[in-house]
Amino acid sequence: MSVGAALEQLLRLIYRRAMKLSVLPEDERDPHYDLIRLSCCAAAEHIGQSPDQAAITANDMVEFVRALVGIIEVGCGPDHGRSADQPSPVQRPGGQESGTTRV
Known about the structure:
Blueprint: H1 3-22, H2 30-46, H3 51-76, E1 90-91, E2 97-98
Antiparallel strand pairs: 1-2
C-alpha cells in the first residue's frame, strides 16, 4: 500500500470515529480518546518511534480527533444526530438538498 493510500485510509477512519464521538455526550468520550491514544502509541512504537516520541504522537492524534469532533459539532447543527456513514447534505440554490457532496 502506498503512503498516500495509507494516509487516505487513516483519515477516513479518523473521520468516522470523530463522527461517532460527536454524537456522544462529552462525559462519555474520554474512554474512547484513551483507546485512540493507546492504539496510536502502539502503532508509532511499532514503526520505530521511541516510547517518548510515540506518546507525543499519540497525544497529538487525540488532540486532532478532539478538534475534528468540535468542528463536526459546530458544522452539523440540527442534523447532528446523523449517522457517521451518511453523507452530509449539501444545500443547493433554491433550498433543495442533495444527499451527496461534490468535490
